[in-house]
Amino acid sequence: MMFSCKIMRIALTTSAGLLLTGVGMIYLVSSVAADSGGISLVINTLGILSLLSAPILLLAILVLALLPGTRKSLSLCNH
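Now predict its structure.
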């Protein structure tokens, strides 16, 4: 699979979405659904997983972008 500009944009947008989703879920549990019992633990765990997966995805993008074969294809991107 070729690492292209479109894949880079999708991955960055997904990472930002995961970050915002994680923050929103943790806020939801801490303020709105604090007394809902077991579901708050599930939502909080999913929020933490979303927050942790966002920088992991960014790191994976960075590693892929630094590979010698992808530098040529990414240098043709229009910013």
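Helices lie at 5-32, 38-65, 68-74.
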